[in-house]
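Reply to dn_fold:

You asked what the input looked like. This is it:
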Amino acid sequence: MKKFYTLVVAAMVAVSSVSAEGLKQLSWNNDKQVSKASVEMASKLNLPAPTQSIKSVETKDLDISDLSGNYTWSYVSQTQSNGGQTVSTSIKIEKTGNNIYTLSWNGLEFSATYSLLSKKFSIASNQYLGFNEANNIDVYFYNLDPSNYTPISTPATATISGDSFVFDSNVMLGIGNTSLGWFVLGKNNVFTLSTSVVWENPTMPKDGWVDCGTADFADPWQVAAYDGVDINEYAWTVGVEKNENIEGLYRMVNPYQNSPISGNNADPTGEGYIVFSVADPEFVLVYPLVYTGLMDEVGAFLNTNVEGYYMIGYENMTKELIISETGITPSTFDVEKGKVIFRNNYFGLISKPEALYSWKDNNNQTIEVDGWLQFNDWTGINGVGVDADENAPVEYYNLQGMRINNVDNNPGLYIRKQGNKATKVYVK
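and this is what came back:
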């Protein structure tokens, strides 16, 4: 019997307060910042080595006639909760006039200009950004004196370097209220054109996906990192696809694109998925090594759960063995209501995909919450549990959805499909 390694959860850096259109803003300055730590890894997954990289883009001069685009704003935080940490967040720049630009960050907008003569990008200080109802405060953009944290009247200016706007290292930018708190307070500010993550998603089938509507999603992986936040209050709508070749296999498409933390996504144009199988309603798998489309200063996230991590990643694994060795209460699917309950939730990073990470709160306690996904039109979606046609031919597919014609001479883990029923089998 294969011995499981203890799952040791790791604390990681959580990002600043965030918001999304149509959703109330997450808690203001909730001091949820924690530091990244290593975890004890389980044995390496028995999967093909994924092709991993961050897209390499040659640095080139920005088009000074139109600087519009999605940027990653990185800075060294000066707040007490995460002082000295490098933070990355997403910011959009859009040209609205003759060398006049609007900057959009977490639903807030402020203006800037670019001078062709001086070749400087300038953001005026003391811009009023609106009233924040969640925290009952007025919000401003400031250029601050780094010696005493007081606003100054001169604009914050940056020069263009390749594909980035680089502010002087002593320039301190702030979004918030000098009397009440900060969303952003940072030095070493750089705006860099965003690039997408390139990741092969080695466990996700490439073919057979069809649209099956939308679902409401309460995220237990990343929104749960916001200490004290009830994820049920921040559920949002995601698009869902099902796989026609593998029974019970679904995926959320770009699940964090319109989420409460989309403003902190450093990969706003990237594609991502959360793949899950409800073929066994009493043992729902979340596939490991699938890029979610979410990246921040911690890394690029690969959501999974214990059930999927071991069942997909290990040979000769069974539901009974996983439950007995780990003691988990499995994730489940209510076939009648079309609702998934995600339990035992962890994530990997593209930089260390075989590791399992979780989050800790400010009391150094592991954050363990159950998430859920509710299909919005379950009656119109083909469910699971349809009896197979016993006379139908048997077909075999690998975990990437490719049909395999000669499994007898190729031992391994396969999807066995007969009629409308698909099951996972191990061929010796």
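Residues 102 and 111 are 5 Å apart (CA to CA).
Hope that clears it up.
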